[in-house]
Amino acid sequence: MAQMQTSAQGMQSLPALLQRNAAQFGDAPAYREKEFGIWQCWTWAETAKEIEALALGLVNLGVNEGDFVAIIGRNRPYLYWSMVAAQAVGAVPVPLYQDAVAEEMAYVLGHCGARFVIVGDQEQADKVIEIQDQLHQFEHMIYLDPRGMRKYDHTQLHQFSHIQDQGRAAHDELIGEFKKRQAKLDYDSTCVMLYTSGTTGKPKGVVLSNRNVIQSAKNSSEFDHLTQGENILSYLPMAWVGDFIFSIGQAYWCGFCVNCPESQDTMMTDLREIGPTYFFAPPRVFEGQLTNVMIRMEDAGALKRKMFHHFLAHAKKVGGDILDGRPVGLMDRLKYALGNVLVYGPLKDTLGYGRIRVGYTAGEAIGPEIFDFYRSLGINLKQLYGQTEATVFITVQPDGEVRADTVGVPAPEVEIKIDDSGEIHYRSPGTFVEYFNNPESTASTKDAEGWVATGDAGFFEEGSGHLRIIDRAKDVGKMADGSMFAPKYVENKLKFYPDILEAVLFGNGRDRCVAFINIDLTAVGNWAERNNIAYASYQELAGHPQVLESIRSHVTEVNKSVAEDPMLSGCQVHRFVVLHKELDADDGEMTRTRKVRRRIVEEKFDDIITALYDGSEQVSTVTEVTYEDGRKGSIKATLTIVDADVKPGAVHKVAAE
To answer: In the chain, is it the N or the C terminus that has fewer CB atoms within a 10 Å radius of its CB?
Structure first.
């Protein structure tokens, strides 16, 4: 590994790293994809040839230096190749979220002025065709999967394999131009443009240079001792900065293998088959898997269930200490080893986590109970704190210093400062170049010295030097009595319960807190089936008296826990409703990365919030929804408002600054 990294000095672009990988370990696997139930594999040498053919085809099609090439689809080697091929010819790759509706795509494609679009399949092609008349710069679209595309007008449509074939055929004529463009690439060349999720407004195009991506990949890989022998499963949206840095930045720096699942539906099966050594997932993935585990245990026999909970309790007691190398008694170690044979090992293999050496979660704060559950099994799960504008890494957790309540220490070469209001600022080699065509936002986010305002509030712990995130700075407020209001802290505790999918807390400036809750249809539906409870819809199940009572008991438990924190005990939930619909990105209530758009939810369900505070026992509401085919409709519901038990707690008054 040391030799490989030394030789990579001066490698100032992804195409340069690709050539290095093809030369140094050309026979090693670079990409795998499961198709028709069989794993296909490409070595680094084969990958370099595929990307060169595509790049030559793009030049042949008329892609110029500085052009924007949009890439839309699920994780597939061909689409990862498209990003590197675009950069190799001097263009800028712009990945989009594949589940974005046509209107969202129209904004991004129009904003960056993409002349070329590469899509995965007919569904994505149809979205682009639908908005084609709004895109004045658009000229050509390349599609990967030909199914359903035969009768389309191919004036501006091209099959991916045909573009590669044309590139190979024109090799001799175009290779000179291709090499000339590639030679121009340096650390200051644009590597990729990624759009923010847009929690507070229109998405912004974050321009990241080769320096941002390669230095961040290098520093993070060295921090976690990543090697060329790692295997990762790439299943998260390609438009998200986390996937870009793990599946392209670190993969090209280290030369490890990127594995793409067959589909979203087979992801868990594919995960078990690959058994990644390095794994990343946002909290919702870990929450969902824990929910599935608990559902399966409810269906297990009494003996198995008893053994599971017995050893799980022991893992909770000593598992984290064993993982971190802290002293643990011999008998406790022996019992943990037995638990590993009977419970923890089989469970990790079932989840696909049996070989994980380093695991990360980020994007949202993870509930401490969920985090500790996985670490207690012996999975080296860590948190990192990052942003698109930082090329992911702001803080990381060193081995042996992993805790649920902090996000670790500054990542290598990252500087952090906290301003007087508590907002976190950073600067690093990963600090973004600019927001595309938005100098005002660039100037308000990044100052002349390169310091970036994160929008998050936090503080460094004395002694440990670890950073603690309180919440989004704009979401942290004060209750009417002056105590702190930090909604994310309580929401994460609620989401630990398998039957709670989402929670949104309100209370800023008020005398008490109230909450919206979404049930997890999988978990609650499984409970209903076991108890022979019939239901016809999500809405009917969400309003069932036994479901409401179960959620009330969870809220009571969370209130008990929150009451023990003197700083946040004022954030206990006094009343709540279980919403009649899931919060949905298509309805504008969440981002594509499943972050709640708090202000929009607050405005959209203002009548329900009013009822929660005015003492009503029920509230009737009408909500506009968007169906899968894009049609608009509305659903009516009468919701029951539930009072929760609030525990006495010493409320810590926040002194006025």
So the answer is: C
- Given the candidates 3.30.300.30, 3.40.50.150, 3.30.70.890, 3.40.50.2000, the CATH classification of the domain at 477-643 is 3.30.300.30
| Contact between residue 385 and residue 394 where contact means Cβ atoms under 8 Å apart | yes
Structure-token match 């010493």, residue found: 650
**Distance set, CA 290 to CA 8, 224, 298, 374, 593 (Å):** 40, 26, 12, 9, 20
Reference 134, options 157, 170, 107; nearest CA is 107
| Start-end of CATH 3.30.300.30 domains in the chain | 477-643
Say what the pTM is: 0.80
CATH topology of domain 393-474: Luciferase; domain 3 (2.30.38)
For the chain, residues classed under CATH 3.40.50.12780 are: 2-8+20-277
Positive/negative CA dihedral, 439, 445, 447, 449: negative
Q: Which fold has domain 2-8+20-277?
A: Rossmann fold (3.40.50)
Q: Tell me which residue of 84, 88, 54, 86 sits closest to 67, measured CA to CA.
A: 86
Buried b (16+ CB within 10 A) or exposed e, 546-570: ebbebbbebbebbbebbbebebbbb
- DSSP H helix total and E strand total for the chain: 24, 30
Question: DSSP character for 653?
Answer: B
The whole-angstrom separation of Cα 193 and Cα 138 is 17
Amino acid at 1: M
Task: Please state the separation of Cα 221 from the chain's center in Å.
Answer: 19
* Least confident among 73-82, 183-192, 425-434, 578-587: 578-587
What confidence tens digit (pLDDT) does each residue in 289-330 have? 888 888 888 788 889 999 999 999 999 999 999 999 999 999
Question: Would you give the distance in Å from CA 616 to the centre of its chain?
Answer: 38
Residue with the two structure tokens 């053919």: 53
Domain with CATH 2.30.38.10 in the chain: 393-474
